[in-house]
Structures are given as structure tokens and as C-alpha cells.
């Protein structure tokens, strides 16, 4: 018995770190997290105030402070979003979280709280059409184990995150308007500047990375003069501000695109029938559920930031083309089958092509029926060619730039007969999805793909160059037309001139649009 007692005593003395949860003192107070192996995890830290009530449709307010030690082991509320089934299924991760307008919180995954050298910081901006999802559903422990501090943040969604109305504009003549989701992201990045050193991170080495609407946010943040000093590198995955084809303004209607204020007036009329001119008090008194349900009655698609004159002074694409984006290294790419977003929709060809004659489009995409042509056109204009345009502009402004295409099919994707890597297939190789299946944990091919992705991404965060982590060399992008795209698969290889005819066609279209004054 004495030997057993001594053995147990020795065991308890040998694991002091596991017995004491990690704590840190930030500007707002002290937080207590939990260990995931060697990674200190802090969840649900508010980085701004409640966005409900009178704070709805206002810029984010200062984060709350507290006395004593705040428990940071549980995710905070996620931002209001639709809970209706998509394609017959409710997202399984939704059941893990509460929902509230008091949702501007973040999680931090730190590999070295007490380390003398502060680690590079990677801030994840989640996707989901800017209408659904949360940073909290992505576990970043595996990425943090590569020696980076990872922050996953929430931002306002749906028409709570992108909204304007003449009454709101008149009430706040000096405030930022409309792009509330982007304001939230900038507030989160300011919080990182002020607090991440206390959590083991280097505020002078911050990489923003995001996928889908998160990638749109990354490129929009690069195009905002209010982002200065908030980040030092950027990764845009399957999402860019493609605002040449469909520019949109806060308060100015265009022939094909109503303004954000016009959209707000239409919502007010639908939700406040018989009221006439809605007041700000009436708009803020609407239940958030009614606002979310209203969006479900409108045309599907992502809610993309608008040119508001201040946070986004002009179309982001035009800022890139003029070299006025944030001067930071850029890693940008897409998946090989972005069409996965459109396969379940039957969209009419002529409205999709806009001013482009159908015969001209058929020359570039020969042998396709209307449905396939629509899918290819949307994949190229919304993703592949739009990303290529920003990559070229980044190079031309002197910034080191790398371009990829994620081609890898998981066992489940192969079994389903997918023609390529679907939109979002890349994310599970970087961040662990909660409440959703991933590849078999012992599959050596899948583990190799994951290692490739994590090495490239974290090495880019460390140095501004994805090379150096022992992976296949990734050549820098050249804007001449023969740039090498890194095809991410097992094995990895680079290829020059990917989809060259289609890309050249769209880049020529964009060059023509850029020669015209902004609408």
C-alpha cells in the first residue's frame, strides 16, 4: 500500500501543469481556460459589447470588463442565424451553442503562454455566406501545435451584419454605416493588438485567414484604410471581393444592383407593414428572428460588403488594381470544384452573363449546356478569375504572392463521385470541425494532406513565405500569365498556366472594366 501511495503521490507531483488550468490577464480582467494536450484554450472571450437593443446596427462598442477570474472554458453565444434545414438537414453543430445578439466573442488557442518568444498569430474569419456559422465550430488545436497562436472570432451575420436604412443613416451622420460584420472583424483585430501578447502571441506578426465569405472579408479588410496596422499577412481561401461585375453602394442604386439602403427600406416595408417611414426605434425593436426569417424569403447568396465611402472608400478590386490595398504578403486560392455551390440551383443564363453576349461565352466555354455554362461562369467570375486578378495586382504592387488550387478528394468525396474538391473541402485539413465527420484518423494519405496544408499555412504566418517547412517548393506567383499555381493534393505539384484561356478572357474583361470610371 505504501508503494502505491508513493507512486500516486509521485504521479500527482509530476503533472502540475495539468492540475492547474491556464490563466492569463488581459485588458478586461483575468481569464481561466483549459488544456487540450499542450495547447492552452480560452473560449468565449468578449472582444466588443452587446450588439442587441440600442446597439443594433451601430459600430461595435467597447468590450466589457470584469472583476475576479472569468471562466473561459465554454464558447460564448454565436451570432443570430437561420436554424432552418439546408438541403433537408439542420447543421449538427448548431445544437452546441446558444444564440444571442451579444455574440462578439472569440476563442484563443495558444501553444506557449509563458514562452519568452511570442508566437505568430493567425486570426480565422469563418465562412458561411456571411449568413451562417461561427468561429467557435472550428477547433484550432492542431494548427496551434505547429507553433502559432490561433484566434477564431465571431462577427454579425445576415442583415444584422450588413444593413442600411435612411433613418439609420440620418441618425448617425458621423458613424460608420452598413458593413457591420467588417467593423466587427476590425474590432477583433484591434483586440488582438491590445491583448494577444498576454496569451503568448506576437501582435507584430498577425495573419488573417478566411474561407468563402471569410475570404471575402480578408480581401475587403485588405482594401480598407481602417485596417492599417491590424495585420501583416493575409490568406484568402475560396472567396474574394469580386465587386467589378456587380458593384454595390451603401446609398446609391445602380441599374442592376439596388443600394443597401434600398434593400433596408424593402425589409422595413415587409416587416413593418402599414408603418410608412420606419423609425430607428421600430427597426431596432424587431425580433432578430424576424430579420433572419426575412432573409430566407430573398434571393439566395452571400451578403457581400458594400462600398460605403469610409470603411470601403471604393470597390476593393479597384483598390487592388491601383496598388492601394494593405501592403502585405498574400496567399490566395480556390478549390477545383467551386461549382459545388451551384449544382443544386437552376439559374438562368442571360442574367448571369449580364452584358456578355451568350455567343461570346460559348466560345470560351465550348460544348457546355446552359446549366454547365452557368456553373463554370459563376465559379470563374466569383472565385478563380477574381482570385487571379487580385493575385496579379498584389504582385504588381510589389507584394510576395502565392496562388494555389486545392484538388484533393477525401475518401468520402471519392466515394460520392465528386468531380473535384468542393467549396469548403480544404477547411477540415486546417481546422477540426465540431460535430461533423472528418476523414479516418489513421488514413496516411489524409494525414499527409493535413500536414502539407498546416505546414504551408503556418510557415506563411511565420515568415510571409509558405516555403521552408520541408514541403514541396512553392514558386512565387508571376503576373505574366505563366504563373505557377500550387496544386494541393497528394502529392503536391506546381503547374503553370492553369485554365489559361478562361483566365485570360476574364482578366481582359476586368482590365476593360477598370479602364472605365467607377459606376
Describe the structure.
The structure is a single chain. The protein has helices at residues 2-14, 16-19, 141-144, 158-161, 166-171, 180-195, 213-222, 260-271, 280-285, 288-296, 316-321, 349-353, 358-364, 370-396, 411-415, 444-463, 500-515, and strands at residues 23-26, 29-32, 34-36, 39-46, 69-71, 105-110, 119-125, 138-139, 149-153, 201-211, 233-237, 330-335, 401-406, 432-433, 484-488, 493-496. Helices cover 33% and strands 16% of the residues. An eleven-stranded mixed sheet has the order 3-4-6-9-7-10-11-12-13-15-16, with helices on both faces. The protein has a three-stranded mixed sheet with strand order 1-2-5, with no helix packed on it. The model is unreliable at 5-9 and 11-17 (pLDDT under 50). A hairpin with a 2-residue loop joins strand 1 (23-26) and strand 2. Helix 14 packs across helix 17. It is globular. The chain is of the alpha/beta class and 519 residues long.
List the defining traits of the structure above.
519 residues, 11-stranded mixed beta sheet, 16 strands, 33% helix, 16% strand, globular
Task: Estimate the helix proportion, in percent.
Answer: 25-40%
Largest sheet: 11 strands, mixed
Q: Please state roughly what percent of the residues sit in beta strands, choosing from under 5%, 5-15%, 15-25%, 25-35%, 35-45% or over 45%.
A: 15-25%
- The low-confidence runs, each spanning 5 or more residues with pLDDT under 50, are 5-9, 11-17
